[in-house]
Amino acid sequence: MGQAELGFVGVGRMGGPMALRLLDAGFPLTVYDTNADAVTALVNRGAKSAASAEAVGSAVDIVLMSLPTPPIVHAVSVGEGGILRGSRLKTLIDLSTTGPSVASVVARAAKERNVAWVDSPVSGGVAGASKGTLAVMVSCERATFPVVEPVLKTFGKTFYVGEKPGLAQIAKL
To answer: Are 73 and 10 in contact (CB under 8 A)?
Structure first.
């Protein structure tokens, strides 16, 4: 068995370098972003392109998202055409900095769809994302952590802070 197939939504300033690290580590990757150039750069390195956030959630079991603002995180995860509407998705990892309230809302929506939620904001900026030296805070159900840790270690050092949605956001802030 090879590496887990992953999806990545939001492959811009932070997500792009993290997605490249996943590709370099050998993970098969399906990507989506509203910026076609960002997607093309990753496709040129071996990623597959998806037509929407929902399409990513229908293509793979584990989807990571790195998005710029809490309203965008909410819309892209739970909104119409969002990742959680995907038919195959089992685990959703949010690398964005959203604050604990959005994390709690999305975690509830994920649970309603039997999707494991991983709150995992990163610290260390674009340089850290490129070098794989980010601090990766993680809150999720204890049983989910061993599943996602090999993926998250690609970006830097992981810090498991507990099970409650939003705890990793608080730890980062």
So the answer is: no
Q: Is 29 exposed, middle or buried (0-12, 13-18, 19+ CB in 10 A)?
A: buried
| pLDDT, tens digit, 9 for 90 and up, residues 11-58 | 999 999 999 999 999 999 999 999 999 999 999 999 999 999 999 999
Active site residue 153: no
Spatial distance between the Cα atoms of 95 and 64, rounded to a whole number of angstroms: 7
φ, ψ of residue 88 in degrees (nearest 5) = -110, -20
Helices and strands (H and E) in the chain: how many: 8, 9
The helix or strand, by DSSP H or E, that contains position 156, with its residue range, turns out to be strand 156-162
Picking from 99, 102, 53, the residue whose alpha carbon sits closest to that of residue 79 is: 53
Angstrom distance (rounded) from CA 61 to CA 7:
8
93-127 per-position pLDDT tens digit: 999 998 889 999 999 999 999 999 999 999 999 99
Active site residue: 48, 90, 131, 172, which one? 172
Question: Residue 68: which region, alpha, beta or left (left: phi > 0; alpha: psi -120 to 50)?
Answer: alpha
Q: Please name the amino acid found at residue 32.
A: Y
Q: Is 7 helix (H, G, I), strand (E, B) or coil?
A: strand
